[in-house]
Amino acid sequence: MLTRDDLMTLDGEDPLAQYRARFDIPDGLIYLDGNSLGAQPKSVPAAAGVVLDEWQSQLIGGWRQAGWWELPLAVGDKIGRIIGAAPGQVLACDTTSINLYKTISAAVALRPDRSVILTEEIGFPTDQYIVDSVAERTGRTVRSVPRDESPADYLDDSVSVAVLGQVDFRTAALLDIPTTTAAVHDAGALVVWDLSHSAGVVPIALDADGADFAVGCTYKYLNGGPGAPAYLYVNQRILSETVQPLQGWLGHAEPFLMANEYQPAPGVRRFLTGTQPIVAMRVLDASLDVYADVDVAEVRAKSTRLTEMFIRLVDERCTGMGLDLLSPRPAESRGSQVSLRHPEAVAVYDRLVANGVRGDFRSPDILRFGFAPLYVSYADVWDAVEVLQSVLAR
Ligand SMILES: *Cc1c(COP(=O)(O)O)cnc(C)c1O
User: Fold this and answer.
1) Domain residues for 305?
2) Which of 291, 316, 335 is the last residue of a domain?
């Protein structure tokens, strides 16, 4: 049986332990919902102050003087470092939903003779809705891969694009990007990866793996704040052939010519549509500095251990209490989250929150616990299971 001291020992040996001090986490809270909204880095309030000062003092001049124009690309490159993309291929902009629309449409246009869009049957709802909407507007049909089956088995020469999440938001099941991308390419199709639940906690090498497109949000493990700008990635290899459906003035090659005819910018800026939320972008920019010297492989190592310890403690201390593990048991098949089912999940969730443990609940019976390794400690894991056990015992 594990003891709290065992977990304290792991904290003592944790090479990432110092990062917790860079976050402002409310006292007395064990926060296991960083997979939905990341905690606030301490550098954020000052960064928000800076952009408000820039606006106050520079007014319209801020676009150039303060570098606001460059932020979607500059912030995009910072995200690129985390997801294995060389500079000039990532844009911080819009929302994940909008970026899905842009990239899926661009992929479909690159495969004009293919009639099918492949996606996951039980993926994140917005991903499904956007796939449906692109399919409707482009006269394609949608083919869905059933849960627990491999997308590779659903590919053929009618598939234009496969839209896949690296980590499933419900179960934390992890898809392998290199092998899946290779299978998609073997079928002559393109891939759009949704990295919302994996960026920052699972090593990602988009360039090395030859991924075509990717999108993701920044308010989960990347801690960009509520509604922070999302991002999109377009591989350099296909960039110059891509056409995106929301052509706006900021994606134009020469926005300030105010030309009547649309001419896409040569680089990834062609995926920009209109003016971006600069205040939120500055906050995101500051949040990402936490990751400047982080090795995601090290984050993954801790993440794996945190989720393993959580599962082991639940096994040891909560048997016979109605919990079922929904996440994959082998660590290599699991993201940085553990999902448990319980027939009275809502009531359990409410009692956990009332006792200072913030996970979340997904209908109908799923308790999710996200482990953000930059600020969750091994002792937190122990304390969370302690509370879970006492809630279930009552
Ligand atoms: C969180 C998440 C989104 C969020 O989309 P928004 O447009 O930011 O609301 C989309 N897809 C996946 C897979 C997610 O996990």
Assistant:
1) 4-31+295-393
2) 291
The DSSP output letter for 326 is -
Q: Kindly give the interhelix angle for 71-83 and 278-288, rounded to the nearest 10 degrees.
A: 30
Considering the domain architecture, whether residues 250 and 371 belong to the same structural domain is answered as no
pTM exceeding 0.85: yes
Written as one letter, the residue type at 266 is: P
pLDDT confidence of residue 394: 86
Residues with a CB atom less than 6 Å from ligand 1: 95-97, 124, 126-127, 165, 169, 194, 196-197, 217, 230
Active site residues: 124, 194, 219-220, 368
Q: How many Å lie between the centroid of ligand 1 and the Cα of residue 163?
A: 13
Give yes or no: residues 155 and 56 share one domain: yes
- Verify that 283 and 304 share a domain, yes or no: no
- Would you say residue 122 has pLDDT above 90? no
Q: What distance lies between CA 25 and its chain's CA centroid?
A: 21
Cα(306)–Cα(98) distance, integer angstroms: 33
Name the CA radius of gyration of the chain, rounded: 22
Q: How high is the pLDDT of residue 41?
A: 98
